[in-house]
Amino acid sequence: MENVLSVKDLCKNYGKSKVLKGVNLDIPKGSIFGLVGRNGAGKTTLMRIVTGLAEPTSGTYSIGGVENTDRKILGVRRRMGSITDSPALYKNLSAYDNIKLQYINLGMTSFDDIPELLELVDLKDTGKKKAGKFSLGMRQRLGIAIVLCGKPDILVLDEPINGLDPQGIIQMREILLRINRERHTTILISSHILEELSKLATHYAFIEKGEILQTLSSQELMSKVRKCSRIKVTSTDLLFPVFDKENIEYKIDNQDTIDIYSDISAKHIIQLADEAGVDVISINENNESLEGYFMNLVAKKDGIS
Amino acid sequence: MIRALKSSFFRFYKTGALYLTVAGSVAFAFLVALYVYGSYFSIYAFKRPRFLDNSFVLMCLNALLYVMPFAIAVFCVLFTGTDLEYRSVNNKITTGISRIQIYCADLTVSLLASVISCAIQEGLIFLIVKIWAVKSTIRFDTYLIGMMITVVIICISFTALYVFFQYFARNKLLALVITLMIIPCVMIVSTLISSDLKEPYRTQVYVDDTDKTEWKLNPAYVSGTKREIYTFIIEASPYSDDEDFYLNTKKNLQKQSAAAAIVFVLSTAAGFLAISKKEFP
Predict the structure, then answer these.
(1) How many domains would you assign to chain A?
(2) Is B227 helix (H, G, I), strand (E, B) or coil?
(3) Looking at CA atoms only, how far is residue B105 from chain A in angstroms?
(4) Closest CA to B278 of A54, A73, A56
(5) Residue A107's domain spans which residues?
């Protein structure tokens, strides 16, 4: 598969601190590539470098086959849209003028598509209202509209759903899936909300302490994630001592839900719950979550090092 | 470069920066004329009210040299500083506009605003004289024209310096503080140097415990190369005391313009370096 963005041995140091340590990454054309990592893992730095906002200390990257050291990279960047951290908007301009300015930045002379873009992100009724007076969700959507100017081939989105309400998250997901499907736009996206990311991404890269731990497609991920029994109980607190005594591997999902990774029968689980004086509400077979997989991966790395 | 320029001009027009420049310039011109009118008749007490000549215009132009840099500082912070604060400059970088082009476009718009402002203020001062004066004897001699051109050149050099500080400083507030402090600092340094230069060669001192005095060499007298450097600084600086203003000559105006041109070149070169190395958040 053709790669639209390739990163090779990329390093970034800030003084003595090594933020990226020889990152290698290939992003296939048409994919939605999820970058998963904890705070300070190097996701934003990596995105800032590939978008030209920061220079690498060493290593290279190429966009559409053009290396960053090549002068032609400036031309290729026109085919790329990005949001890093939060959307960069002129707060004293309207949504229409913000988009028009981006058209000018791209060297476009026709502004006929602006209403269509505003409609896509549901901002067509904002009129002359200044972007500074927009809600967070509206700003994020305007940010998406700005990066979609000129129909880019690749989008780099750093935490685009940060701070959005549930409805905003669903709207954002639908927009991203739509442009990926209809325009075949490649998307490199990072998010702390891994459950949301798992609904979008076709490929993943797990990054920790400036190093890529693993890259894989969503199909590969599905084949690698462990099966678990998800039990819903009246109280989880009383169950922990029993599970610990029996050496059962488990993970708490929330106050009343536990994922059990050990191979034990439903009958045995109910028995243990009875011993602990806890009622079992339901037992379902489930896949390990993306979050669980990532945490497991990080734990393994820490264990090795 | 065209993209960068179009983008900066769109912002100049759309964000109201252009109107702010024009309105601010008109207001400043009237304030300066009013202020100078008061001083003018306290100095030239023999003149009849509203009899204005070249010295009135020259005093206005000199006053503009003090006021304009503050106005330019505010403009640069609002125009370039806001672009950096909103991180909207990122949208230009990520669309492949080179950093130098972004800098040049911002500098071009700021220079244009500065020139527009100078033109409005200088023009308005002549208009005020024309309307206001009962009798005006303004002559467009070479010194007056030289002073007008020097004001524009000095304003241009300040613009370049201030644009550099927008990219050099970490945030808008710091950039504003630095830029607003430049003029007072230059004034203080010029005044100190000027007073050092005015130290007499010999001074009268008392002979030990007697009423008699004798002339001795003044240890505070600045001599040699140091004096030459000090003299050059005073002649090249438009900011010193009133006495220096009245001693200002056409030759000094040339030195002031040359110094301003050097500041322009150095600050633009430093600005190119600053934007090339800058890590955008």
Answers:
(1) 2
(2) helix
(3) 12
(4) A54
(5) 3-223
Sequence spans of domains, chain B: 2-181+252-277
pLDDT, residue A305, reads 45
Angle at B144 between CA B244 and CA B189, to 5 degrees: 25
Query: Which carries the bigger pLDDT value, residue B212 or residue B47?
Result: B212
Q: Based on the fold, state whether residues A245 and A180 are members of the same structural domain.
A: no
Which chain A residues are within 8 Å of B86, Cβ to Cβ?
Answer: 88-91
Minimal Cβ distance to A91: which of B86, B280, B281: B86
Q: What are B147-178's pLDDT values in tens digits?
A: 888 888 988 998 998 888 888 877 778 888 88
Residue A90 to residue B280, Cβ atoms within 8 A: no
Does residue A293 sit within a domain? no
What gap in Å lies between CA B21 and CA A15, rounded to an integer?
41
Distance from the Cα of residue B145 to its chain's centroid = 17
All residues at 6 or more sequence positions from B2 whose CB lies less than 8 Å from its CB, including other chains: A107
CB contact under 8 A, A104 and B7: yes
Question: Which of B94, B101, B279 would best serve as a mutation to test chain A binding (most A beta carbons within 10 A)?
Answer: B94
CATH number at residue A252: 3.30.70.100
pLDDT (tens digit per residue) in A230-267: 888 887 787 788 888 878 888 777 778 888 877 788 88
Q: What does pTM read for this prediction?
A: 0.76
Reported ipTM: 0.73
Q: Flag whether A305 is in a domain.
A: no
Q: Do B7 and A105 touch (CB under 8 A)?
A: yes
